[in-house]
Amino acid sequence: MDKPLLNVENLSVSFDTPKGVVEAVRGISFQVGQERLGIVGESGSGKSQTGRAILGLTPGRVEADRIEFDGINLHKAPARTIRAIRGRRISMIMQDPRYSLNPVMTVGWQIAEAYRVHTNATKREAKQHALDMLTTVRIREPEKVYGLYPHQVSGGMGQRIMIAMMLIPGPDLIIADEPTSALDVTVQLQVLAILDDMVRDRGMGLIFISHDLHLVSSFCDRILVMYGGQIMEVLEAGALDQAEHPYTKGLLNCLPDIDRQQGTLPVLRRDDAWMNRKGGAGGDVP
Amino acid sequence: MIKVENLDITFGGGAQRVHAVRDVSFTVASGESFGLVGESGSGKSTVLRAIAGLTPGWRGTMTVVGQTLSQRRDRAFHKQLQMVFQDPYGSLHPRHTVNDILKEPLVIHRMDDGERRILRALDEVGLGPAYRFRYPHQLSGGQRQRIAIARALILDPKIVLLDEPTSALDVSVQAEILNLLSRLAREHDLTYIMVSHDLAIVAHLCSRIAVMNRGAFIEEMSDEQLRTGTPEHGYTRQLLVASKGYDRAAIDQFVEFD
Amino acid sequence: MTDQPTETGLKEWLLSDTPQSAAQARCQRLYLAWLSFSANPIAMLGLAIIVVLVGMAAAAPLLTGGDGTEQALANRLQPPSVAHWFGTDELGRDIYDRIVWGARITLYIVGLVAIIVVPIGLLVGTVAGYVGGWVDIILMRVTDIFLAFPRLILALAFVAVLGPGLENAVLAIALTTWSPFARISRAETLTIRNAEHILAARVQGASTARIIVHHVTPLCLSSVIVRLTLDMAGIILVAAGLGFLGLGAQPPLPEWGAMISTGRQYMLDQWWVATIPGLAILIVSMGFNLLGDGLRDVLDPRSGGTS
What we know:
A: six-stranded mixed beta sheet, 34% helix, globular, B: alpha/beta, 10 helices
């Protein structure tokens, strides 16, 4: 396979609290190519902080040997370089469009703005691109939706608008942080299908962060399982039954399965020994 | 135990009218676990809240333990029917300790053996007396939900309404809470009505399941029927397919159901 | 946990994760709030000013020679000196003594207004917000009526009817100060009303009164306390204004506003008579403002303060 889009080495994120230093991410390493990489974990596993640290969007303290994107070390790059990359070449889709879209501007304007900021397009060109993008994310009547405000659109449509906004500058890598967790299950899958098509058509890389192991394993190509700020295991999608780490196996077992009647669900037994893995290297691009 | 006939609820007026529940009828036998499944806007939570007495202005007939319900509920009703809410972060008062939270229903219903009941309730949900004087922000999500369950049980009700009790919890914690709910149902012969959007959870805990969409009942079935994959209605079948994970070909077949 | 808290034992007790009693839990919350508050130097300055004010008022007999009302006409309008730290006023009274004793009056005014205004505001606001409907409409219109009065005009009207005096001034100030607290409480209540813990209380069978008192009011307290401390400065100034007009404290009470009023005539040549009480008002108002700011940072749930 080609050279990886993103190469993360020994990433750590920590926060200072009145009760001491909290290490959200502890020295993890991984690579992302032109593929769909899933990062799965429960709350407190550090998965969201990892995504944010790549773009420098976390208030915590980030330390890394390197966060390399297209030959640039994002960790050491000057603010101007990072600003040029953010949005234009690496984009981020967040969980709830109610909170991530600006409530006082129309959605069409926000999409057009996202285009204008990263290119030198005129207002008319930007509007046309925005309308095209709305059609690409399968919104019917794009002209009408262009003039709506965020509170007037449903969750699924809001997330599609978010995708339009984040993909219109044509980034190479997308980080999606629980992009469908706030949606109904059928809508979730429809939104993911759109994301899937766009990633495939444009040859982008996708980092998909989620707590939903089943969803990630059916949607992504590779999966990183995180716990306590470290990578426990790396799996190929579809190879979940070959998972070796007790955390992954425990997580899979404790989900209620619709196909069988279970009396008591097996409960995940946490082992402190898991926290003593040094960092955890995960996922060199094959 | 619970009988609902022709329940109809409309919110708002004029242009903002929302017909949240349309002519819903069902019965729940004593000791049974009944599940209500649907996506957002299906009206499932509204039905639950109407039974609990939280939505005035409902139309229809509701009978609980032989008593026909009126718009207002009396204290005796609340002793028999309690509710566990979805958000463990929102359903506990941020300024009350666990002790205050568990004592509240006892004070309202003027029960004397408060001390004994509180300790017993904590014990039943698997938390020791060490948690008694903590504030909610000092508890994890799973622990908060256990307190919410303890609070619901402290009056020894016969019926517990569960409004998506595990949706806001981590997967591993969810399993513990589901096991706890199963055990408590067995030990106290409780009747549950559980609302969820997750078919797997509802099939696990409930013996009979009703599917709702846009305020109306689509169909009712047993958990076995759901499991063996033979629901009659297209909407239920679509929901079942969607709950199995991402399948590109299947997604293209999805339809809007009105 | 040790029974006799030692230096580190006490800290452990205050920071422990498993409080053993309701009292310990409450102490812990207060301690954490204090830690958060004391990290803010400006807020601590405000607190220090208020503490000095209260100390002055409490220890007035110890800190002064007389009670500030002894006249000595031969000694009038003396500049600040070793004998009279702040000089003397037009009747020969020691201004330092009058400032210190005047602190009691300032505290009296502020305290009395607070005691009247907070319960009324909370009650009206929470009931209006929670019960809604006609009750809400009527209570809010009453609130609006009181809100519409400019303070000084109402005080004048009051005094015209009842006669001048400190208590009447306090009543007049209270009547024009309670309305914003009702509005704040109502706004908070509207947000809280649909929270799941309130619904849980309803499902448990709690009466409306119990919910308002035990569940809603504790959550409104933070905003109300912050608003109160920020309003204190305004209250002091209005009281000073009334004193200035001769409608508040009557002579010979050493109320700071009245002191400015009488000192006005001597402003050019004997600046200390009016300026010193003016500075006292300035410092105390600022102290309350800074304290209020600091409290808001600690208590405001929106900024993620302590719960």
